[in-house]
Amino acid sequence: MISKTLEKELNNQLNAELYSAYLYLSMAAYLSQKNLNGFSNWTKVQFEEEQSHANKLFQYILDRGGKVELKQINQPKSEWNGIIDIFENILKHEQYITSRINELVDIAMSEKDHATVALMQWYVNEQVEEEATVSDILDQLKLIEGKGSGLFMLDREAKQRVFKPIN
Ligand code: OFO
Q1: Which burial class, exposed, middle or buried, applies to 158 when counting CB atoms under 10 A from its CB (0-12, 13-18, 19+)?
Q2: How many domains does the chain have?
Q3: Backbone angles phi, psi at 162, to 5 degrees
Q4: The domain spanning residue 56 has which CATH number?
Q5: Cys-Cys with 27: which of 43, 143, 152, 165 at CB 3.0–4.6 Å?
Q6: How far apart are the C-alpha atoms of 38 and 159, rounded to whole Å?
Q7: Who contacts 90 (Cβ-Cβ below 8 Å, separation ≥6)?
Q8: What's the pTM value of the predicted model, to 2 decimals?
Q9: Which residues line ligand 1 (CB under 6 A)?
């Protein structure tokens, strides 16, 4: 059984992951409208990843005898100022998610809830990977000033991304 505090925080994180999914889906639509179909694919794959992050929490709360409470998902933005703005926003968002995950680890540790600490460790590692990937893409986009043949190449590369189910 998880504590009421952790149950609430895990439900909040479930909501945050669903919001992340929603945000990436909104970005996928915007990028498709801008004919950046590779990056649209990239954010659409991220949308799927975020859903799987949410699902992992959903299952964990249930496995620990907790109650899943689905809250309202905030409306994401639908307009950005081009591809660099998109990736700057992604990086900022993922840094925010990382800070939330770290807080959850702190709470789980203070409660000596080892199972939740172990679960959250998976998210800690995932955030390191996400932030690194997004920083790399952002650096490359800045290098080519988000335009021209460089953008065409990066967009083509982004089209190769495929969703890999997590365990
Ligand atoms: Fe769930 O990792 Fe991004 O937000």
Answers
A1: buried
A2: 1
A3: -125, 150
A4: 1.20.1260.10
A5: 43
A6: 4
A7: 27, 134, 138
A8: 0.97
A9: 17, 20, 50, 53, 94, 97, 126, 130
Q: Which of 19, 50, 104 to mutate to test the pocket of ligand 1 (most atoms within 8 A of CB)?
A: 50
Q: Which domain range does residue 91 map to?
A: 4-158
10 domain-assigned: yes
Give the residue, out of 19, 53, 99, 102, with the most ligand 1 atoms within 8 A of its beta carbon, to mutate for a pocket test: 53
In a domain, 128, yes or no: yes
The answer to whether residue 129 sits within a structural domain is yes
Contacts of 111 (CB under 8 A, 6+ apart): 3, 5, 6
* Ligand 1 pocket mutation, candidates 12, 57, 97, criterion most atoms within 8 A of CB: 97
Please write the tens of the pLDDT for every residue from 86-127.
Answer: 999 999 999 999 999 999 999 999 999 999 999 999 999 999
| pLDDT tens profile 133-162 | 999 999 999 999 999 999 999 999 999 999
> 66 CA distance to ligand 1 centroid (A)?
22
